Amino acid sequence: MKLLVIGNPIKHSKSPTIHNCWLRRHKLQAVYEKKLMKREELYSVIELVKNKKIAGLNVTLPFKEIIIEYMDKLHPSAEESMAVNTVYLDKRNRVTGANTDGIGFMEYLKKDLEINIKNKSFYIIGAGGAALGIISTLVKFNPSGIEIINRTKKKATALAKKFYNSNVPFSIGDWEKMIPDKDKDIIINTSSFGMTPGEKINLDKKNLTKNTLIFDIIYEPRQTEFLKDFAREGFKTFNGIGMLIRQAATAFNFWFVKNKISNQDVKAIQKILK
């Protein structure tokens, strides 16, 4: 039995390390590999899933949105985010696309960090697919408010409008003058902001307390310039490894419904990737 993560580029992916660890722990006769993929190859790889030659897929950039057209069905997580990072066969053998990014991030906050999301105020940098995946899950947990900041303000506004009926207050911040309000509990960077070595972080921290938690969904490098900037001033910072592991666990559970990932499984891979 084989599973794949597909993308372009794909060399950086940690998914094989995570899933092969869990496959061994559950004594499943399967192997998880990464495959560099071209767009014209998507149809053939989906056919392999349909014919049960491949047990499941993870999908990374640049195919998370493109691959939707090849799905028989979308899980609600994919419908809400209009992106797919996990492909599996449902009970009726329909090729189904799900998005475990947002679920994984919330699981990380709740289970690993024991954070109660309800009534927390969020400041989210970026308005791309990652932000959409996180926000589409986040609004279900009744945060007190979400502020979105993006280089292109129009894109941030369009993202907020998707959640007009969520009963969660949204606001749009200024990219040139990043000044989070004093009530911000959690800051999440979903963009490439702070990825360049030596990049100046122009986020004004004057209103923040040291209780504000700082997240960057990037996991390579482990400490982006964004996280380093906050860590130097005594803030608690978290990279993307925790989210990566929890979204992988959700994907694994879609593929192997009788072999659910336990907290012991999560701790085992945390030790390997720390």
Summarize the structure.
The protein is an alpha/beta fold. It has nine helices and twelve strands. The strands form two sheets. Strands 2-1-3-5-6-4 form a six-stranded mixed β-sheet.
Descriptive notes:
This protein is an alpha/beta fold and 274 residues long. The chain has helices spanning 15-25, 42-50, 76-81, 101-112, 129-138, 153-161, 225-231, 241-255, 263-273; strands spanning 2-7, 31-36, 56-59, 73-74, 86-89, 95-98, 121-125, 145-149, 170-172, 186-189, 213-216, 236-238. The strands form two sheets. A six-stranded mixed beta sheet has the order 2-1-3-5-6-4. Strands 9-8-7-10-11-12 form a six-stranded parallel beta sheet, with helices on both faces. Helix 4 (101-112) crosses helix 5 (129-138) and helix 8 packs across helix 9. The protein starts with a strand and ends with a helix.
Tags for this entry?
6-stranded parallel β-sheet; alpha/beta; 9 helices; 2 domains; 6-stranded mixed β-sheet; Rossmann fold
Straight-line distance between termini: 29 Å
What is the number of independent domains?
Answer: 2
Spell out the CATH superfamily of the largest domain.
Answer: NAD(P)-binding Rossmann-like Domain
- As residue ranges, the low-confidence spans are none
The overall pLDDT, averaged over residues, is 95
Output the radius of gyration.
19 Å
CATH topology of the largest domain: Rossmann fold
Principal-axes geometry comes out as: globular
Biggest β-sheet: strands ordered side by side in the sheet: 2-1-3-5-6-4
Query: Structural class of the helices, strands and pairings?
Result: alpha/beta
- The helix content is 25-40%
- CATH top level of the largest domain is Alpha Beta
Content of β-strand: 15-25%
Q: What is the number of E strands?
A: 12
Could you describe the largest sheet, including whether it forms a barrel? 6 strands, mixed
Order of helices and strands: EHEHEEHEEHEHEHEEEHEHH
Overall CATH architecture of the largest domain = 3-Layer(aba) Sandwich
Tally of separate helices:
9
